[in-house]
């Protein structure tokens, strides 16, 4: 593996450690509804940021692809983890039986495995190339058929989470409305930037 330092790696480190500090703070308040999946979301975000930082610094296609695949170890789980958090927040923890949890994470886990076979199968991503540009090189790629399956699945899960939060804002007291609005705004921001990244309008997420 070969690396070239870029200041974007510092941004990734700041994002990683600030997110982990927030997760540690959340771990001190485990009695709060939805805090455990919220911590899970933070850990996913921190891991993504760190791996993306190393991807920024990679100078070879193989190096960048390795760290991009490491991002996919956790990234497909993000919409499901947000859904778990929302379900706990609205007081419907009983919806999350072990069987339902296993079913919900099945496609994300399968995706995390499939990306490692993309050089041969190209189900998630294919036609890789190294695009040389400043301030760092990026991976050129096309999306495979499985990508659109998991992308659509993530959109569906995010959509359900948003609808549950909107319903909570309509039905519940003012305090819960503010909290639901905060979660809805956060999820909307994530979905917006994720969509821009998927459309390759932007080339990184922090």
Structure characteristics:
206 residues; mainly alpha; 7 helices; 2 strands; 6% strand
What does this structure look like?
- The chain has 206 residues and is mainly α.
- The chain has one domain.
- It has seven helices and two strands.
- A hairpin with a 6-residue loop joins β1 and β2.
- α1 packs antiparallel against α2 and α6 runs antiparallel to α7.
- The model has no long low-confidence stretch (mean pLDDT 91).
Rg over CA atoms, rounded to whole Å, is 18 Å
Shape: globular
Instruction: Report the β-strand fraction as a percent range.
Output: 5-15%
Poorly predicted sequence stretches spanning 5 or more consecutive residues: none
Number of structural units classed as domains: 1
Mean pLDDT: 91
The assigned structural class equals mainly alpha
Give the SSE string: HHHHHEEHH
Q: What is the share of helical residues?
A: 55-70%
Main-sheet strand order equals: 1-2
Summarize the structure.
The chain is mainly alpha-helical and 206 residues long. The chain has helices at 7-27, 35-57, 61-71, 78-89, 98-114, 145-171, 174-198; strands at 125-131, 138-143. 66% of the residues lie in helices and 6% in strands.
